[in-house]
Amino acid sequence: MQKFFSLVKKEIKELVTIQMVVPLIIMVLAFSWLGSILATETEKSQAPLDLWVINNDSGELSENIIVDLEANNFKVETKFEDLETVKSLALANDISMLLVIDAGFSQALNNYQAQNIELYSLISNFSLTTMTAGSKLQAVGNIINTNIKNYWVNSLNLEISASDLEKPVNLEEYVVIGEKEAKVPLMAVSGFISQQTTFVPVILFIIIVIAAQMVATAIASEKENKTFETLLTLPVGRKTIVFAKLLAAGIISILFALFYLIGLSRYMGGLTGGAGAVMDNFAGAFQSLGISFSFIDYTFLGLSLFLGIMTALSLALLLGLMVDNVKAVQAATTPLMVLVLIPYLLTMFIDIDKASLFIKYLVYVIPFSYPFLAVQKLVIADYSFITFGLIYQLFFFLLVVILTTKVFSSDKVLSWRFNFKGLKK
Fold first, then answer.
1. Among residues 79, 237, 318, 386, which one has the fewest Cβ atoms lying within 10 Å of its Cβ?
2. CA 291, 295, 299, 302 torsion-angle sign
3. Are 285 and 240 in contact (CB under 8 A)?
4. Alpha carbons 228 and 232: distance in angstroms, whole number
């Protein structure tokens, strides 16, 4: 028994190396830091939501509705201009919700007649924050209906129908994207966009992680098996070796991406069930809003994804040159994993356009942020952002490739090491 436990202790020492512990510590610190950022941004989202109201009714019930909304964490501001002017002002001031109450609203409700209220969702991006705004819109409808229902119940009028008592006000939702507008619930739009955007961040993150580990492990394995020196002695240019490795890894990564895309699309199709048929009912509204992707959009998206993957592979190749055994690969590629993890989580959970300057610049300086944000920007036709992202990614990729070829072309390719002996001491 003692020999058994001694063997277990020996194996634990073999497995738990400094190369494994340091990446774990770095990832814990990274997650803690990102958690604090997300907590700060979540607190911002808990602040009262700005809601502009065009109240064309002078009755008491419309005023009561505004008071109830203010009491339920909405910052209501009444506007007196015409609808088109107020919509333009709302977009310019980053106001996401606009409520319109027609004249005669209170009088009709006093006569127990169900009324319509127009609620406009003004969309500037498709972050997760925007996509979850549907619950806030539903809250507006619930608050209004509860107010009127209580008023009707208190009046004790027996002529009220059961359907009107349950829902005295029908909320007509409009979605505005730029200058385009359609009568459609925000939840339907967000569901449609989610179908378009669900795969991209997940697939890109998985592919980058797998491909980076694959490239770095291949280099470390060649060094460990002493075949790397043989490769360098072949009558082939060092630059050719670099591009050959990147091209081979890129082809494999694209194949991985296609397989993951097929698998996830089938999974999501089974998970959503008949949601596709529901979305078909709003096909005309989606076309009016211009949120369907064209061939040019898919081309931009494909280029952004390809450059994101190739940038990750070039960094992984450079980091792989720093290690001489497979065990150290995880530690060497940890900086790359952190660079991918930061934009992956931040772009998923917060609205980057409304984040602090530090967070915004941090995300924009990381080249992997642009593929994560590409779908959101393409939906609102922000091609200037996409173009800048492609140029920046290409510049970053070429910079890393040039650095990698310089290392390959020098003696550093054999002497460059990434070890933890200093840390161990």
1. 237
2. positive
3. no
4. 6
Question: In terms of Cα–Cα distance, which of 253, 352, 262 is closest to 306?
Answer: 253
Q: Within 13 A of 221's CA, how many CA atoms are on the CB side?
A: 6
Residue 423 pLDDT grade (very low, low, confident, very high; cuts 50, 70, 90): very low
- Residue length, the chain? 425
Indicate the DSSP class of residue 368.
T
Report the mean per-residue pLDDT for the chain: 76
pLDDT classification of 264: cutoffs 50, 70, 90? low
What are the tokens at 201? Answer: 């961040």
At the fourth CATH level, the homologous superfamily of domain 48-183 is abc type-2 transporter like domain (3.40.1710.10)
Crossing angle, helix 357-365 and helix 329-349, to 10 degrees? 130
DSSP annotation of 174 reads E
Domain residue ranges in the chain: 14-43+194-424, 48-183
CB within 8 Å of 349: residues ≥ 6 apart? 38, 41, 128, 129
Angle at 49 between CA 47 and CA 53, to 5 degrees: 155
Question: What is the chain's alpha carbon radius of gyration, rounded to the nearest angstrom?
Answer: 28
Return the structure tokens found at 95.
């106001």
Tokens found for residue 107: 């009088």
d(CA 174, CA 361): 33
pLDDT value, residue 425: 36
Listed in sequence order, the residues at least 6 apart from 316 whose beta carbon sits closer than 8 Å to its beta carbon are 211, 212, 213, 215, 216, 249, 333, 336
* H or E element that contains 324: none
Nearest to 162 by CA among 146, 151, 149: 149
pLDDT at 230 over 60: yes
C-alpha dist (Å) from residue 2 to 9, 16, 32, 214, 397: 11, 21, 40, 39, 55
